[in-house]
Amino acid sequence: MTSAGSGQQPSLARALAVARHGTLWLVPTLLSALVALGLTLLYMGGILNPNGNLRDLPIALVNTDQGPPLPGQQQTVGTQVSRSIAAATPAGTVEWRRLSQAQMQDELASGKIYGALVIPTDFTTSVSALTTPRATARPALTVLTNPGLGSLGSSLAAQITQRAAHQASLTIGRQLTTRSSAQDADSTTRALLGDPITVTTKVGHPIGRHTGLGLTAFYFALLLVLTGFVGGNIINNGVDAGLGYTDNEIGPWHTRRPTVPISRTQTLLLKMLMTAGITVLTTSLLMIAAIGILGMDAAHLPLLWIFSYCASLAVGLGVQAINAAFGGIGQVVSMFVFIALALPSSGATIPLHAVPGFYRFLALFEPMRQLSDGVRAILYFDARADAGLTRGWVMIAIGVALALLFGFGMTLYYDRKGLHRLTTRPAATADQAP
C-alpha cells in the first residue's frame, strides 16, 4: 500500500502544483460562467410568457353572412359579430385580417395566418330563427387552425378565436333572451338562447400524419444547422491535426504530425473545399435517415435536398470563417451565432409574435429562422415562394457571401501582418504553467 501511495504522490503533487496557478483557472472560469448565464437568459427568456408577449398574431376573420338584418337593425349579425370581436381584442395582440373565403384559403396555404374564424352565409337567418318555431339548428361559427405553423402557434390562434366566438355567442344571447322574455318564452328556451352559438374547430390547412404535429420542419432545420456546425468543427480540427498544427489525441493514443508550412488563407480554402464536399454526404444521409428510414412526410424531394445542402453548407462555411478569425475561441463564438442565439429566435416552436422584441430582432438575420421557414414551405406549403422559401434562399446566399468575405478577409489580413501559425516554443515545467 505504501509503495502504491508513494507512486501516486508525484503525479498528484504535480497536478496540484499546476492547479495553484490562478491564471490557469481564469479564462475557463469566466467563459463557463458567461456561457451558463447567457444560455439561461436566452432560452428561458423567450418561452416564459407567450400570452403576455403576444404581438400582432395574424388571424383571418371571414364574414360571409348574407342576411337579411334582423328587424330594427341595419347590419347583419355576422357584421356585428366581426366588428365586436375586433373591438374586444386587446390592442396589439392580434392582427384580425378581414378576408374573403378565397383569400383566407390562400393565406392558410402560404402560412401567412395562424388560423381563421369563419361566419357562415346563413348566420343571421339561423340566429333569427331561434326565437321562432322555424328553428332547426343552432347557429354555428367555424374556427380553422393551421398546424403547419407549429402546434403552439396554431393552438394560440385556436384559443383566441374560440374565446372570441364564445364572447360573441354571449352577446347575441343577451339580445335573444331579451326578445324571448318579451314573447313569454319558457325558462328552458331562455337558457338555450343565453349561449346560442355552436363553435366548431377544424383544420384549415391539413398536413401529413408523420409531421410531428407541425414540428418536423423545425427539427429538420435544426439537423441541418447541427450537421453544418458539428461537421464544420470536425473538419476544422481534423485539418489542423493533419497539417501538424494541433495534437491528435484519441483516448490514450496521441500523435503529432510534422507541421506543414501553409498560410492561413490556404488553410481556410482547404477547409471550405472539404466542407463543400463532405456536406454532400451528410445531407444525403440526413434525408435517407429522416425520410427513407423513419418515414417523415416530405414532398418536393429534389428541391428539399438542394435547399438542405445549401443551408448546411452555409452554416459550415460560417463555422470555418469564424474559427479562422477567432482561433481557439471560435467554436464558442460559432456556437452562439448558429445555436444559442438562433434557436430561441427561430419562430418554429414558439411564434415570433409571442416572444419578446429582442428575439424578433434576432430573427431578422439569425439562420435558424430563415432555414426553418424555407424547410416549412417545402414540407407543408407546397414549396410556395411566398411561404418563406424565397426568404430562405436569399438569406442562404447572404450567409455564404458573408462567410467568404469575412473568413478570407481576416486570414488575408493575418497573413499580410505576418501572424503565421507556424511557431516553436520550448517545453514548460509545472512551475512555469500559465
From TrEMBL:
Residues 30-398 form the DUF3533 domain. InterPro entries: DUF3533 (IPR022703), T7SS_ABC-Transporter (IPR051328). The chain crosses the membrane at residues 24-45, 212-235, 273-296, 303-326, 332-359, 393-414. Keywords: Cell membrane, Membrane, Transmembrane, Transmembrane helix. It is found in: Cell membrane. Gene3D superfamilies: abc type-2 transporter like domain (3.40.1710.10). The keyword S-adenosyl-L-methionine does not apply. It is a multi-pass membrane protein. It holds the Pfam family DUF3533. Belongs to the ABC-2 integral membrane protein family. PANTHER family: DOXORUBICIN RESISTANCE ABC TRANSPORTER PERMEASE PROTEIN DRRB (PTHR43077:SF8), TRANSPORT PERMEASE YVFS-RELATED (PTHR43077). This is YhgE/Pip domain-containing protein. It comes from Streptomyces coerulescens.
